[in-house]
Structures are given as C-alpha cells and as structure tokens.
Design goal:
By secondary structure, the protein is α/β, with parallel strands linked by helices. It has one domain: Bacterial extracellular solute-binding protein, family 7 (D-Maltodextrin-Binding Protein, domain 2), CATH 3.40.190. 45% of the residues lie in helices and 17% in strands. The chain has 13 helices and eleven strands. The chain has a five-stranded mixed sheet, with helices on both faces. A four-stranded mixed sheet has the order 8-5-9-11. A two-stranded parallel sheet has the order 6-7. The chain binds D-malate. The site of D-malate has 11 residues, from loops.
Length: 339
C-alpha cells in the first residue's frame, strides 16, 4: 500500500475509533475497574501484551482508574495496531491518536536534541540514564517535544540497552559486521553509527522489520533483549551480540490536544499515574533482562559478549559529526551526569 493510502486508511480507522470507542469521550470501555461512562484513552504500543512496555501501560491503567474512581481508563493497542512509532507520534501531534509508547529513535525527527539518545555509548549504566531523564535534561527534552511535536511526555519509561542480532555470524569486533545488511531506526545518527561499524545500513519503520529479516532483505537489527524475545526475532536471527551500544528510553506520550481537554484534576491524576507507572515499568524491565537472555539461549540464539573498546573507537567520527548538531554542551552534561 502506498504511504498516502496507508495514512488515509489509518486516519479513517482512528476517526471511526474516536466515534465508536470515544477516545476521550464517554464510554464504558468494558473494563471491570472503569466506571460507567468512563473516558477511554487509547494507547498505542510497538510491542505485545506481556512486553516490558505493557508492564508500564497496565500499571498506568490501574493507577489512573484508582486516581479517578474509574472515570478515566486506558485501552492498550498492541503490536503497532495504530501504526509505526513515527506515524503514532505524528498522529498524537495532530490529535488523531490519543497516546502511545515510542522509543526515542523516531522522535529525533521531531526534536533534534532527542537524537542525543542515539549517540553510541553515551551512557554505560541504566542508572545514569535514569538520572539524566529524571533531571533537568529530561525536563528540557520533554518541553521541546511538547512544543515542537505537540505531544506531552507523561513519563520516561524504558526500552533498554540495545544489542545487535544477525543471521550471518557472531560479532566479536566491528570487522565482523562488515557488509552485513543492517536495519536502523529512522535516525540519521543511527545510520552513521552502523556505517561506522561497517554495515550496509538502511532505515526502516519498525512494523516492517520482522518480515525484512525473515526474507533476508535485512540480515541484522538491534533492540533490547526484551524486545527481541517479544517479537520472536530468535525465529529469524541466529546470533545475539551484546553490543550494548545505545540506551533507549521509551516515553509514554499523549496528544497535547487530548491532554489539554482534560480538567486540572484529571491532568493531575494522569501525571500521578504515569509517575508511578514509570517507576514500576523500569523495575519490571530490569527484572526481565537476565531471564530473557536465558530464554533467548534456550530458543537457540548464540550469544557473544564482545569487548566494546573497538566499537567505542569506531564511532568516534559519529561524535565529531553529530555532537555539534545536537549540542556539545547537552552531550557533555549528559555524559557527566552523576548517579
Ligand atoms: C525499533 O527498533 O524500532 C524500536 O525499538 C521498537 C520498539 O520501540 O519497541
């Protein structure tokens, strides 16, 4: 389907959704804890139920219903049902999509500074990422997303450290990646990073990735372990290489138009629910890591733990090119954030 047709279909479906399910208008939602006539917030997820993203969305729903005596509720829409992440952010911006989780990769297309999170080896520990996200930088990025994309950041949930997988060979050094057809997110920094690693890098929207790997149009991708398990990449990828090259946040977002339509009390209830859910989601995500790795081995993936020094060296040109564009000070401040 061409892009315009796809967009029109999506917009039509969502408009019907607004009429039928009443995104931000009254409905009962069919939820046990949602009261009669509850307002429903439809939330888009790039992953499925039981994913680390869903741990956050479920908690958000639970807290929101509790905070509002069931007058606000949440309906999750899994596995890109409402569109790819970039489309969903655009949809929230124009008010055709209520809310959603998106990793930061596609958000850099709306706010240049968010590309900071695509910079390889910016942080080595999740705790440092949390300190950045929960401090001034997180607030500053959220402010820019609101202003430039018309989308409110409800909470900086977590996607996690990303690792490369492929169907060609184990990766010990960047030389092992040479010539491999690698899918990146829709981010110029990521394209440059994977070219610096020696791959043949091409951006591709998330909903297309599994099929591209299956058909060998792409041979390699990178994502957090929990995502690799959730979308069953082990069926189409043999090698899991723990490159840990990027920490990727997964903010829970809401259309500003929708957020502004709520009363002050409702807005407060939403922000409070998101705060609790974000904390819960990060813990759930971290708790899943080791078990997920074990499961991926059981599913047949060969795991390699490369020495990362050569990878860090290979991406120095990415910093030379992109740090001035994104903001030298911002990057320095992030890297120096104490935790
Ligand atoms: C991607 O690779 O496009 C994303 O990490 C998908 C996601 O947000 O789960």
């Amino acid at each position: 389907m061409n892009k315009i047709l796809k967009w029109l279909t999506l917009t039509m479906l969502l408009s019907i959704g607004v009429l039928v399910t009443g995104c931000s208008s009254d409905n009962t939602g069919g939820n046990a804890s949602a009261g009669e006539g509850a307002k429903t917030i439809n939330v888009s997820l790039p992953l499925g139920p039981e994913s680390h993203h869903d741990a956050g969305v479920q908690k958000f729903k639970e807290e929101l219903e509790k905070n509002t005596d069931g007058s606000l509720t949440v309906v999750p829409h899994y596995n890109n049902e409402l569109g790819g992440e970039r489309e969903v952010v655009e949809g929230m911006g124009i008010g055709t999509i209520d809310a959603g989780i998106s990793s930061t990769g596609p958000i850099g297309g709306f706010v240049q500074e968010v590309m900071m999170w695509d910079m390889p080896y910016l942080v080595d520990e999740a705790e440092q990422a949390y300190a950045i996200l929960d401090g001034d930088i997180g607030d500053e990025l959220a402010g820019k997303i609101e202003k430039q994309a018309n989308v409110v950041v409800l909470g900086w949930m977590e996607n996690g450290f990303r690792n490369e997988t492929n169907s060609v060979r184990p990766v010990e050094t960047p030389e092992d990646l040479k010539g491999i057809k690698h899918r990146t997110q829709e981010s110029k920094v990521q394209i440059d990073t994977w070219e610096a690693f020696g791959t043949n890098a091409t951006p591709m929207a998330w909903p297309e990735v599994y099929t591209a790997l299956q058909q060998k149009v792409m041979e390699s991708q990178e994502n957090p372990l929990a995502t690799i398990l959730d979308v069953r990449f082990y069926e189409v990828q043999d090698y899991l290489n723990l490159t840990k090259h990027v920490y990727s946040p997964a903010p829970l977002l809401m259309s500003k138009q929708l957020f502004d339509s709520f009363t002050d009390e409702e807005q407060e209830a939403i922000m409070q629910a998101a705060k609790v859910a974000t904390k819960h989601q990060r813990i759930a995500s971290q708790d899943m890591e080791e078990d997920v790795k074990k499961q991926l081995v059981e599913k047949g993936m060969t795991v390699t733990e490369p020495n990362l020094e050569k990878f860090k060296k290979a991406v120095e040109p990415v910093y030379e090119k992109w740090a001035p564009e994104i903001g030298e000070e911002l990057i320095k401040e992030a890297r120096n954030t104490e935790y």
